Amino acid sequence: MITIALTKGRILKDTLPLLSAAGIEPEEDIASSRKLVFATNQADVRLLVLRGVDVLTYIRHGTADMGVVGKDMLMEDGASQLYELFDLGIARCRLMTAYKKERAQLVKQSKLASQSRIKVATKYVNIAQRYYAEQGVQADIIKLYGGMELAPIMGLADEIVDIVDTGKTLLANGLEPANFIADISSRLVANKASMKVKHAELKHLTDAIAAAVSQQSA
To answer: How far apart are the C-alpha atoms of 93 and 133, rounded to whole Å?
Structure first.
């Protein structure tokens, strides 16, 4: 049995057409089901539907053989015990800093140069620590799991680090994107042990998915 772990939400929506083009179809509608494990039209392939960080955990422990996860998750939690096979080119967005418009004006006018430390709210603690260290900025990182835009509004943080797609949510909350950190898209990853033990089966699947990605981008 080959187990493929998929990330909920937008990534799942964009992944399913790729799997379909690769010949893998869930036997029931994932969107309308509360189940987390789905059989497919291929008797030896099943799908798991999980949060992104849990996709990595299942693959690391070998419970899932391969999966689809955002590059942001790989940057945050590392890729140990995994092979990052290739970029699927879906769910594209940017990882950026953002802050209130009033702060943006002060930054542009160089009136914040004397500020010794800043407070940053994010769920990407490791990425934020690395980024601000590289910039030579002393930052106190506050971990949040959602509602990042609220942190600067309520004075919890000076800045946030978050995923930015259209930027409309930031603007609606009086914030604006500031500094670019990384381009993000979804990647196909696999457990290292699975790639050895089930090499032929996984190569067949990855080749089919790669062909679907190439066809989509053509």
So the answer is: 23
The verdict on 98 and 176 lying in the same domain is: yes
Domain of residue 17 covers: 2-92+185-217
By DSSP bridging, strand 93-100 and strand 117-122 are: unpaired
Print burial letters for 17-42: b (CB count within 10 Å at least 16), e (below 16): ebbeebbbebeeebeeeeeeebebee
pLDDT tens-digit map of 133-145 = 999 999 999 999 9
Kind and range of the H or E element at 20?
helix 10-21
**What's the pLDDT tens digit per position in 51-62?**
988 999 999 999
Per the structure, the count of domains in the chain is 2
42 and 113 in one domain?
A: no
Among 149, 4, 137, 144, CA closest to 64: 4
| Spatial strand order in the sheet of 117-122 | 138-143, 117-122, 159-164, 93-100, 175-184
The pLDDT tens digits for 137-192 are 999 999 999 899 999 999 999 999 999 998 899 999 999 999 999 999 999 999 99
Q: Are residues 82 and 190 in the same domain?
A: yes
* CB-based contact 209:19 (threshold 8 Å): yes
Q: What angle do CA 26, 29, 34 make, to 5 degrees?
A: 105
